[in-house]
Amino acid sequence: MIAELGLAALWMAAALAALQLAAGFLAARQDDAEIAILVRPAAVVQGVLCAFAFAMLVWLFARTDLSVKLVAMNSHSDKPLVFKLAGAWGNHEGSMLLWVTVMSAAGALIALVERRLPDRTMQATLAAQGFVALGFYAFLLFSSNPFERLPIPALEGNGLNPLLQDIGLAFHPPTLYLGYVGLSVAFSFAVGALLTRQVTPDFARAMRPWVLGAWIFLTVGITAGSYWAYYELGWGGWWFWDPVENASLMPWLAATALLHSASVLAARDALRAWTIMLGVVAFSMSMVGTFLVRSGILTSVHAFAVDPERGTFILVLLAIYIGGALAVFGLRAGSVAEGGKFEAVSREGALVINNVLLSAILGVVLLGTLYPLLTEAMGVRVSVGPPYFDPVGAIFVVPMLLVMLVGPLLRWRQDRLARVRRSAIIGMVAVLAGLLLAIALGAGVLPTLGIALGAGLAVASVLPLKGRRLRRVPLATRGMVTAHLGIAVALLGMASESAFSEERLAAIKVGQQASVGPWQVTLAAVDPVAGPNWTALEGVMLASYDGGAPIELHPQARSFWSPPQETTESALATRWNGQLYAVLGKAADGERWQVRLWWKPFVTLIWYGGLLVALGGLLALLGRVRDDLRRRYVTRKAAERREAAA
Amino acid sequence: MRGWRFFLPLGIFALFLGIAGYQLTQPKDDFVHSTMIGRPMPEFAMRPASPDRPGLSLADLKDGTPKLLNIWASWCIPCAAEAPQLAALKAQGAPIVGVAIRDRPEDVAAFLARYGNPFDRIGADDLSELQLAIGSSGVPETFVIDGDGIIRYQHIGDIRASDVPMLMEKLREAGR
């Protein structure tokens, strides 16, 4: 009964999305007030119904209802409850349902709160949102029904992939989805504004919180995903330029560019066409990413259940939405292109340069990700990895970071470099200091650049606060400073990890010692241990930092039995200046064990930096929303006063 | 940006759609093909994997007769499935040598007793050294080696009945 209720709610939500599309389109075209009143309620009810359907799916997983195919395929009665619930979205059908749920909830939220845009733009925006949602409803209902029943209930479920049975990963995909879907809102705003040709600063201000929100979730999602890959896969790396990782990085790059160009549009009414295009591109990257991941068209370490039929479906959706939006862009952009003018040396100028560079980086990542697809069409198989992404990306990252040093110090519209000379010199001194330090420590070319620019940016990012009373600095500016500082911190972590990591691979007996960096590690014992649905060999390692008191580490080699799979659980010991990373491998012969140890100086800065960036976004979002609420309050009061006077 | 330039993103997107759409219709080839085709076999000498057959070394392959070199293991289930096809190839006169990957003599003997022994020689490759050196990424795989020890052809996966004539033909080509 639960499954049928969920399915019914999903069908009704799809019908409401169709209503939202039709009513929104007609209202925007004919300015028909009678139809127009339907649009917002349709969006709200659609959101509620879709959330209801998703709740039903979660309930099915909580009960482990094995008469539902999806539950039987992906769950198991022995699993801990939190992973049973996570199982609801840890698979194709469930994650697609989560996608439309977040999307329709976002649509409902816009319908409820957004009052700033002209009615017609708003109706066109909601129509676009309904149109996009409708495609995903069709995808769910016709090719990925999560509520399908089995003719005969299964006796036991298949279980969830053990690699995914990790608390971090239970929440990593939904976080990224919130980001992807937030970009769908930006997309709908862009299409709505394009259709009504009302690309105004108000449009940018309405869109900005959504982009910021999406961007925060993407940042957190990427950071968490990277940390998960780092400690769960047991390879010691934190980024592999894998197609699936790139699929999350590309929307982030586009959203970062969009965020900055929307700021220019909001403040100075410039970059109209460019902002619209980035709005379309950011969501395209989310969809292209989804397509690459779900169609299995590229080989990736992320083994998703792939299906060419679903791949085709997503490609068709891509063609309709992105192709349609880009076609509208081609036809309409000419009429909205004119905007405010500015000098090359100005805040806008710096933002434009960085927007172009960010887009170039996006192009580099996109090309590297799609290149195997291109050559395979010609019968050549290649694999593109760090030797391409690192140096080619650096060509654009380095000038971008240099512009980031001074950009935030410049004034809007027109400025002179001489005015910010002193700040620029402070930044360059920090760059030089970092450069000399890196060279003295013998880092490679790219890490040296990373340390130099990271040091420079760390100093320069807080300079906009110089000479200002901290309490009077707007929240959004504090957010910007925090986010830029976060980029510097992450950059320093990446450079240090790649330059100074030490690795030690040893086969040792119980009681023997191995050392790596400042650590001495003794293998004290190897014991069998058991968890709820796995057994493991657990190493007991006594790790002592620089001869100090030893701490115990417990790396495990786990064997899951449903489904059967082996995973390694690394053990980490964190110090302020880095992390010891220990993996227990197989028995080398009768009594020796393969042990893999890494000492990674300052590696944790990568993720702290990522979190700082997200925190910066959060501050900016709070600042913007607070300003909006304040402005709304002031306008309302002014209106009341006028009425009272009249 | 003016005029046609606004259509540039659409053009790039159309290109992506074209390639992605084309690739979706193509059957996906997940095999890792050896880059050693046309190159000579590396130097090696392996101990016998089974008491009743001699081991295998490079000199055995350079005796002038083209051979099939079968990479297999007693723990590999498709290897058992391809045993009748190897027997058929043997019956048609193909000389077959085997390389047992990461195996134990008693398991090899039990496997051969159960599924038949088409091999003239079986070398034991305990660390997959030869396997990796000739670009094989799994078991079973079958290589055609000509009389000079040059690798001519690689067949990935188990040999199906329909593959037998093709392998005989490859073997004949290697003899020319």
Automatic annotation (TrEMBL), chain A:
> What name appears for this protein in its UniProt entry?
Heme lyase CcmF/NrfE family subunit
Which family is annotated? Belongs to the CcmF/CycK/Ccl1/NrfE/CcsA family.
Q: Gene Ontology cellular component?
A: plasma membrane
Q: What is its main location?
A: membrane
Asked whether the UniProt record includes Calcium among its keywords, one would answer no
| Role summary | Required for the biogenesis of c-type cytochromes. Possible subunit of a heme lyase.
For this protein, the record's InterPro entries field holds:
CcmF_C, Cyt_c_assembly, Cyt_c_biogenesis, Cyt_c_biogenesis_CcmF
Record domain Cytochrome c assembly protein: where = 89-295
State where the protein is found. Answer: Cell inner membrane
Q: Which UniProt keywords apply?
A: Cell inner membrane, Cell membrane, Cytochrome c-type biogenesis, Lyase, Membrane, Transmembrane, Transmembrane helix
Q: Which organism is it from?
A: Tsuneonella litorea
Which residues span the membrane?
A: 6-26, 38-62, 96-113, 125-143, 177-197, 209-229, 249-267, 274-293, 313-331, 352-374, 394-412, 424-443, 449-465, 477-495, 605-623
Q: Taxonomic classification, please?
A: Bacteria, Pseudomonadati, Pseudomonadota, Alphaproteobacteria, Sphingomonadales
> Domain named Cytochrome c-type biogenesis protein CcmF C-terminal: which ranges?
315-624
Q: How does it sit in the membrane?
A: Multi-pass membrane protein
GO molecular function terms attached to this record: heme binding; heme transmembrane transporter activity; lyase activity
Automatic annotation (TrEMBL), chain B:
GO cellular component labels: outer membrane-bounded periplasmic space
**PROSITE patterns documented for this protein:** THIOREDOXIN_2 (PS51352)
**Which GO biological process categories is it annotated with?**
cytochrome complex assembly
Where in or outside the cell it occurs: the entry states: Cell envelope
What Gene3D superfamilies does the record tag this protein with?
Glutaredoxin
Single GO molecular function = disulfide oxidoreductase activity
Q: Where is the Thioredoxin domain?
A: 35-173
Give UniProt keywords alphabetically: Cytochrome c-type biogenesis, Disulfide bond, Redox-active center
Which family does the record assign? Belongs to the thioredoxin family. DsbE subfamily.
Which protein are we looking at? DsbE family thiol:disulfide interchange protein
